[in-house]
Amino acid sequence: MELEFAANLVWVAVVAVLLSLLLRSRGISTAIPLLIAGAGLGLLPVGPNAPAEPEAIQALILAPLVFGEALSSSYIDLKRVRRPVLGLAIGLVAVTTLVVGGVVASVAGAMPLAMAFALGAVLAPTDAVAVAAAARRANLPQRLVSILEGESLVNDGTGLTALRVATVAAVAGSVTVGQAGLILLQSVVVAIIVGGLAGLILVTVIRRSTDVVGIGGLLLIAPFGLYIVTERLGGSSILAIVIAALMASHASASDPSYRGRLHTAAVWRQITFILQSIAFLLLGLELPDAIVKLSESDRALLLVLVPTVVITLIVTRLTFVVGAFGLDRLRRTPATHSLRSALVVGWAGARGPVSALAAFSIPLLTATGEALPYRDLVIAVSLTSIAVMLALSLTLAPLATRLKVEQPPSAELSARIDAALARAALGALEDAQDDADRAGHPLAPEVVRSLRRSAEHRLDSIREGQAPEDGLRAKVRGLAVAMAQAEQQELLRLRTEEGLPDTAVRAKMVELDRRISTLRSSS
Q1: Which end of the chain has fewer CB atoms within 10 angstroms, the N or the C?
Q2: Is residue 375 pLDDT above 50, yes or no?
Q3: Which of 268, 187, 277, 197 is nearest to 233 (CA)?
């Protein structure tokens, strides 16, 4: 059985990656085509099929996928938008769970209220992968992207915690408010403790170890260990994973001496690409199977519930976001965004594989050993609604263009950064000259002229220059490395003291990492 599960998962991975390569080579977004392809394959008698072990899929696919998304995110940027992120990730998830649950319970009158709320909790969180892809296609301003990505990371933990409460009630028949509160408290507290401790370990290793390969290996196994430990302790594993990954991300981005940035970023880009492809193909594979399991009456109810749920999700999100914008105006505080931006954020509510895997985590049996009622219908409604929401996410870019909510040209910001870095490099060269003069071993004039000319040319043209020409002595290369490291320090100062966006800092840090790597390898 275990060999069959592994073979099927490998088969799914091969098909998903090959399809993704084909789609990417033609510039096509992969989510919807992979979902359609998965649904088609799910109807065939041969080929990959949806794995029957959803918990294993959560550990093997969901945990590293969320870890990779959080690892590429910025704690600094999230901190700057923490107010709207927390409002969406906590407030909107709670409201969505209650509203969707109430609407579903009223439409499907025989469905237990706990199962209706479970459906609401499954669909409450937005998907980090789908939302990030839609935001990139729409070329949204960086602040809006940070809000949407931060929301989709944090609300996974919130939504799955609400799902834990709803499923306990569904399995037990009922829970008191006090019991629900204890479950919620345990999930959050355990996640914060486990995620915080794991994050401290990762930060310590990143800062003190020079073994780039070893650090990369630790980051690779971290999400699996976090998932298992947090689940065993009754906490929200996704929340713990996000906390640890954000701490590790911040540590690696804030340490100029850390040489593993390029290696780690490249490895996790590949891992995330594979896992995203698998997740969307699995979503498609599971959809036909979920519908086939339904009775005729449940299929008729599915046709009513799916549009009802999708409309409820959209209206609830738009109302909440626009209402929050109105409250800001009433308080006479500067609004975070214009009303047009609020409409864009309200429309950017794609759901994805996280919700699908969450739906399959609903238990099969009640506490008395009977089949959990309406489980198959909840799963079918969840998967179909996710497919519809993914299709609607394609309209975000046209909407942003129509409302003129797009990223302004970044040439001015890039020029400002390059000028500051060139000045920092010149300052480092002057310090090196002073130190050499005081030590009685002045630098050769041709060495100073070569390095100064390169930095001044970059400053004059406000663009990235080339590393010193080949053949320079080791001392020249050492000075060039020191100048680049000074630029890294200046980058961190600009971020800390002047509020430079962390995404811009990371892009420049990668350029400097490459320059330093080239200089060192030429020795």
Answers
A1: N
A2: yes
A3: 187
CA distances from 261 to 206, 211, 238, 257, 512 (A): 10, 12, 24, 10, 11
Instruction: Convert the pLDDT of each residue in 138-163 to its tens digit.
Output: 778 878 888 888 888 888 778 888 88
User: b/e map of 43-68 (b: 16 or more CB within 10 Å)?
Assistant: eeeeebbbbeebeebbbbbbbbbbbb
Enter the tokens of residue 259. 């040489």
Question: In CATH, what number does 2-403 get?
Answer: 1.20.1530.20
Domain limits of the chain? 2-403, 411-521
Residue 371 pairs in a beta bridge with 365
DSSP 175-232: --HHHHHHHHHHHHHHHHHHHHHHHHHHHHHHHH---HHHHHHHHHHHHHHHHHHHHH
370-405 residues labelled b (16+ CB within 10 A) or e (exposed): eebebbbbbbbbbbbbbbbbbebbeebbeebeeeeb
Q: In angstroms, how far is the first alpha carbon of the chain from the final one?
A: 54
Within 13 Å of residue 493, how many CA atoms lie on the same side as its CB? 10
d(CA 301, CA 377): 9
Query: Residue 471's pLDDT is what?
Result: 42
Phi and psi based region of residue 488 (left: phi greater than 0; alpha: psi -120 to 50; beta: remaining): alpha
Angstrom distance (rounded) from CA 273 to CA 369: 40
Rounded Cα distance between 267 and 273, Å, is: 10
The conformation of residue 21, written as its DSSP 8-state character, comes to H
The pLDDT of residue 128 is above 60 = yes
- Write down the pLDDT at residue 184: 77
Task: Provide the pLDDT confidence category of residue 331 given band limits of 50, 70 and 90.
Answer: low
- Which residues lie across from 365 on neighbouring strands? 371
The Cα-based distances of 356 to 106, 119, 166 in angstroms read: 23, 11, 16
Q: At what angle do helices 261-292 and 63-71 cross, to 10 degrees?
A: 140
Instruction: Tell me the whole-structure pTM to 2 decimals.
Output: 0.74
pLDDT at 415: 66
Reported as a single tens digit per residue, the pLDDT across 429-483 is 777 877 777 777 787 777 777 777 777 776 666 544 444 344 445 667 777 777 8
Tokens 């789908």, located at residue: 130
Residue 233 has pLDDT above 80, yes or no: yes
Q: How confident is the model at residue 202 (pLDDT cuts 50, 70, 90)?
A: very high
pLDDT tens for each residue of 216-225: 899 999 999 9
Phi, psi for 403 (deg, rounded to 5):
-85, -5
- What's the number of CA atoms in the CB half-sphere (13 Å) around residue 431? 11
Q: How many helices (H) and strands (E) does the chain have?
A: 23, 0
Q: In the predicted model, what is the mean pLDDT of the chain?
A: 81
The CA–CA distances, whole Å, from 383 to 5, 109, 304, 514 equal: 22, 21, 14, 43
Provide the greatest CA pair distance for the chain: 92
